[in-house]
Amino acid sequence: MESLGEKLTYLRNKEGISQRKLMDLLQFENLHKYEKNQREPSVEILKKLALYYDVSTDWLLSLDNSESDLSDYEINFIENFRKLKKEDQFKIEGMVELKLAEMQG
Question: Residue 65's pLDDT is what?
């Protein structure tokens, strides 16, 4: 996933939301053009999308090229985690917190 359009399409599909519903929710137009890389969103729309999807604008714009100290296993886990619905992510977060509490006590 390199382009902004690819990232926006991926995130929207992951959320299981239609283009129309997302545009209505965030109050803007032309999502299909952003997803097809035919038009670039304004800074305001970019911020709305980043907040909605809980990602950085740097990631959306492919500006976050920092070296990662994550292993391939950790990267794969995170990529798979991001594919889950929010409610499933919350469940897994709860399981991790429970396991960490068990280890401390």
Answer: 57
Q: What is the pLDDT of residue 7?
A: 92
Separation of alpha carbons 69 and 67, rounded Å: 7
Indicate the pTM of the whole model. Answer: 0.62
State the amino acid at position 87 in one-letter form: E
Contact call for residues 7 and 59 (beta carbons, < 8 A): yes
Residue 35's closest CA among 54, 18, 52, 58? 18
Residue 39 makes CB contacts below 8 A (sequence gap 6+) with 30, 33
pLDDT mean over 42-67:
86
Tell me the three-class secondary structure of 51-87, residue by residue: HHHCCCHHHHCCCCCCCCCCCHHHHHHHHHHHHCCHH
Q: Helix, strand or coil for residue 18?
A: coil
- What's residue 76's pLDDT? 84
